[in-house]
Design goal:
- This protein is an all-alpha fold.
- Among the domains are: 95 residues, no CATH class; 66 residues, no CATH class; 46 residues.
- 67% of the residues lie in helices and 0% in strands.
- The chain has 22 helices and no strands.
- α1 packs antiparallel against α2, α11 packs parallel to α13 and α21 packs antiparallel against α22.
- The radius of gyration is 31 Å and the shape is elongated.
- The chain starts with 27 loop residues before the first helix and ends in a 6-residue tail after the last helix.
- 25% of the residues are buried.
């Protein structure tokens, strides 16, 4: 006989025990996973091994099939998604489908989820329906109260980081948020904003992940505490980046490409922290090549532009830099004049181009008029005066 196991993650899953007679159906779980879900024998055995013995006694292939059918129908799951849910949390196979359906309804109504959002959460984190609705409410209430979240904010947080359903909110999640808040001297509003920008932070360990990331970033750039807080508030995902494989090599390459001093590199990162989240090879390097070649900037001009406006590194090459500079060149406008105005919206930039065209036409007309008067061509002067009264179009 297998030794009795007690999996605490499944204790809230089933607090019922059906009265039964005769020996327990110890092979029902294996049969269901193997024959109905198409798992290998090893996968089926592994699924059964995750369950405490006292759950196996109430297991039946028919009950598991009912759960499988209910999940597929209620959540509109593919076969692969249903299989993933049950393999991840085999205990669901021994929960009456009549108990799971209300849990799905409660979760959806409590968070105001669409059917697609509910499906995404359950597929990503089956524990969301593997625990009782009372436990779900307790976890959500803790987050809601501590972070002062409204319904939309709570929904965003949970939909992005459904792992919270498998975590001890009061004993683990909130204490590490307190540590982060104290380390960076964040206000409650700043802490909430950081989490809404990067909900996955709820899954990180403070000691193993966040604290080392903060220390390495601060040491690498010689950031003050205020600067470090500013970087994290604007790019909280930096707490999850690999220092050795991502941040350090990226900053070294940026510094080398632009010839930046340590102080200048720090200023660029503090002003534009999301450059830490950009791939240098796929994002930053192509922009620098474009600005050097097509835009025609010298090394010094490029360096000066980035220092004056670090956000230049974040603008889309295909969506903003290339089309604007290409159009500007067509109108004989210098690249540097475009880059100075790179923060303009598309509508503002269009108005700028139109104003430049009007100015160009005015100057050309004045030049032509002076030339015509100088040559004594009265008919040309009259024609140009008539043309000048027409509305300018780009």
């Amino acid at each position: 006989m297998r030794p009795l196991r007690c999996h605490t993650s499944l204790l809230p899953l089933l607090l019922y025990q059906q009265h039964r007679s005769g020996p327990p159906a110890m092979g029902a779980v294996v049969s269901f996973f193997r024959d109905q879900l198409g798992c290998t024998e090893a996968q089926a055995q592994a699924a059964e091994a995750k369950l405490p013995d006292y759950y196996l006694g109430s297991a039946s292939v028919q009950a598991a099939e009912d759960v499988h059918a209910m999940l597929q129908d209620r959540l509109e799951l593919t076969e692969a998604q249903a299989k993933k849910i049950l393999i991840t949390l085999p205990g669901l196979a021994v929960v009456p489908s009549t108990s799971l359906s209300p849990r799905l309804s409660f979760l959806q109504e409590r968070l105001g989820l669409s059917d697609a959002q509910l499906r995404k959460i359950v597929v990503a984190q089956p524990t969301s329906i593997g625990i009782t609705s009372k436990t779900v409410e307790s976890k959500l209430r803790c987050l809601e109260d501590r972070l002062q979240l409204d319904e939309a904010q709570l929904r965003k947080l949970v939909a992005t980081a459904p792992g919270v359903f498998s975590r001890d909110i009061e004993g683990s999640v909130l204490p590490k948020l307190e540590l982060l808040q104290a380390r960076l001297k964040l206000s409650d509003e700043q802490l909430r904003a950081v989490l809404l920008r990067f909900p996955t932070l709820l899954n990180y360990s403070y000691e193993a992940k966040m604290a080392p990331a903060l220390a390495r970033l601060q040491d690498l750039l010689k950031l003050g505490d205020v600067e470090l807080r500013q970087v994290v508030c604007r790019q909280p995902a930096v707490l999850g980046y690999s220092h050795e494989d991502n941040v350090a090599p990226k900053l070294a390459r940026l510094q080398r490409e632009l010839g930046l001093s340590a102080d200048e590199l720090r200023a660029v990162v503090v002003a534009q922290p999301n450059c830490l989240g950009l791939s240098f090879e796929r994002n930053v390097a192509p922009k620098l090549r474009f600005l050097r070649s097509t835009a025609g900037l010298s090394e010094e001009e490029l360096r000066e532009r980035v220092l004056k406006r670090p956000s230049l590194l974040a603008y889309s090459l295909a969506g903003r830099l290339r089309p604007r500079i290409t159009e500007a060149h067509r109108l004989d406008i210098k690249s540097i004049d475009v880059l100075i105005r790179i923060t303009m919206t598309d509508a503002e930039f269009e108005r700028y181009l139109s104003s430049v065209v009007r100015e160009q036409r005015t100057l050309q007309r004045l030049a032509d008029e002076r030339f015509a008067m100088w040559t004594g061509d009265s008919q040309a002067v009259a024609a140009m005066l008539a043309e000048s009264r027409k509305p300018a179009e780009r």
